[in-house]
From TrEMBL:
It comes from the Bacteria. Residues 14-68 form the HTH lacI-type domain. Keywords: DNA-binding, Transcription, Transcription regulation. SUPFAM superfamilies: lambda repressor-like DNA-binding domains, Periplasmic binding protein-like I. This is LacI family transcriptional regulator. It holds the Pfam family Peripla_BP_3. The keyword DNA-binding applies. PROSITE patterns: HTH_LACI_1, HTH_LACI_2. GO terms for molecular function: DNA-binding transcription factor activity; transcription cis-regulatory region binding. PANTHER family: ALANINE RACEMASE (PTHR30146:SF120), LACI-RELATED TRANSCRIPTIONAL REPRESSOR (PTHR30146).
Length: 343
C-alpha cells in the first residue's frame, strides 16, 4: 500500500509542447521565452522559466540544434484554411514539392512535410517551429492565414512563404505576380473574341483574389462586362459537381472562362465537352500555372505560366540566406502566357 508520505506524481515534461501545455501558452511562446526573446512579456517568461526549473526541463538535443541551425531538416507546411478538403496530391502541390525536394537535397537538407487545418489547429505554425525538429520552414500558400504568418515573422527569421506579395507585408514571400497573370489571362480571352467572361474559382484566397482583380483590370480597360465570379472548391469531387452546375447555368451566356488553376481548367474542359460546348468555338478557356496537365488536355490548354522550378529555387535560396543571418527581400516572378489551343 502507498504510505502517507507518498506525493502525487508530477506531470512529465519532456518536450517544449509538454511545457507549453503546462504553462497554458503555445510551443512557440515557450521556445521564444527560453531563448530570452524580448517579445515574450516578462511575467510570462518568468512563469515559463520557473516551470522549466521546477520540472528539470532542458531543451532536448534537437531543440538545441534548432538554435544552432543544425538539425539538417527544413519543414514544409501547407495550411488549408480556405478549403480543408483540398488534397496535397493536387498537381500544383506535387509539382512544387518535387522541385523543393530536389533543391533541399542538393543543399544537404531533408524535408519534413506537414499538412495542417488551421481551424482545428490554430497554433499550427508556432507548434511546428517550436518543435525542435526543423531548422527553418517553408509555408506553401498563405490561404486565409496571412495575419498569423505576419505575427510569426516578427520573431522568427528562418521562414519563407510561397504566395502573393502585398506591399508592406513583413514576411518574406516568393511567388508570381498574380494580378499581372490574371490580366494576361483576361487579355488573351478578349483578344480571342470573348466579351462575356467568367472567373472560375474562389476569390477569397489571396492569390486567387489577385488573379481575379487582374482579370477585372483587363475587363475595365477593354470596356466589356464585369468578370463573373463562379465560386468553386479545389477538391476534385466537389469542384466537378460545382463546375457542372456553373456550366449548366451560365455556359450559354459565356464566351470565355478564366480558371484560377490548370486543374480547375481541365475539369471545366471535361464538363464543357459533356454539355456539348466546343472549345474554343463556343467558349474560350485559359488556366493558370502551366502544370504538365496543361499540355495533355484536349484541346491543349492556353494558360498563364508561373515558373514553379524558379520559385522552388528562390524559396530555398532565400531560406538558406535567412538561416545565415541575412536580411532578404521578397521575390516576385513574372508570369508568361503559354498560348495553346483553348483560347
Amino acid at each position: 500500500m502507498p504510505s502517507g508520505d507518498d506525493k502525487p506524481m508530477r506531470t512529465a515534461v519532456r518536450t517544449i509542447t509538454d511545457l507549453a501545455r503546462l504553462a497554458g501558452v503555445s510551443p512557440g511562446t515557450v521556445s521564444r521565452a527560453l531563448a530570452g526573446k524580448s517579445l515574450v512579456n516578462t511575467q510570462t517568461r518568468q512563469k515559463i522559466e520557473a516551470l522549466a526549473r521546477e520540472h528539470g526541463f532542458r531543451p532536448n538535443q534537437m531543440a538545441s540544434g534548432l538554435r544552432r541551425q543544425k538539425t539538417g531538416v527544413i519543414g514544409v507546411v501547407i495550411p488549408l484554411g480556405h478549403d480543408i478538403r483540398q488534397q496535397i496530391s493536387d498537381s500544383f502541390f506535387m509539382t512544387l514539392l518535387g522541385f523543393l525536394a530536389d533543391e533541399l537535397t542538393t543543399n544537404g537538407y531533408d524535408l519534413m512535410l506537414r499538412r495542417v487545418v488551421p481551424e482545428t489547429d490554430p497554433d499550427w505554425l508556432d507548434r511546428f517551429i517550436g518543435s525542435g525538429m526543423i531548422d527553418g520552414v517553408i509555408v506553401i500558400g498563405q490561404s486565409d492565414q496571412f495575419d498569423r504568418i505576419e505575427e510569426v515573422a516578427d520573431s522568427y527569421r528562418p521562414m519563407v512563404v510561397w504566395g502573393n506579395h502585398t506591399e508592406g507585408q513583413r514576411h518574406c514571400v516568393v511567388g508570381t505576380d498574380n494580378r499581372l497573370g490574371g490580366r494576361l489571362a483576361a487579355e488573351r480571352l478578349i483578344a480571342a473574341g470573348a466579351s462575356r467572361i467568367a472567373f472560375l474559382g474562389d476569390t477569397g484566397p489571396i492569390e486567387f483574389a489577385a488573379r481575379f482583380a487582374g482579370a477585372e483590370d483587363a475587363a475595365r480597360k477593354a470596356g466589356i462586362a464585369p468578370i463573373l465570379p463562379l465560386s468553386t472548391h479545389l477538391s476534385p469531387d466537389r469542384a466537378s459537381i460545382e463546375i457542372a452546375a456553373h456550366v449548366a447555368a451560365h455556359g450559354a451566356d459565356l464566351e470565355g472562362i478564366f480558371a484560377a488553376t490548370d486543374t480547375l481548367a481541365a475539369l471545366c474542359l471535361t464538363e464543357l465537352r459533356k454539355q456539348k460546348m466546343a472549345v474554343p468555338g463556343d467558349v474560350k478557356v485559359v488556366g493558370f500555372d502551366d502544370l504538365p496537365i496543361a499540355r495533355q488536355t484536349l484541346p491543349a490548354l492556353t494558360t498563364v505560366r508561373q515558373d514553379i522550378a524558379a520559385g522552388a529555387h528562390g524559396l530555398v535560396d532565400l531560406l538558406l540566406r535567412r538561416l545565415a543571418g541575412e536580411a532578404t527581400e521578397s521575390l516576385v516572378l513574372p508570369p508568361e502566357l503559354a498560348l495553346r489551343d483553348t483560347a
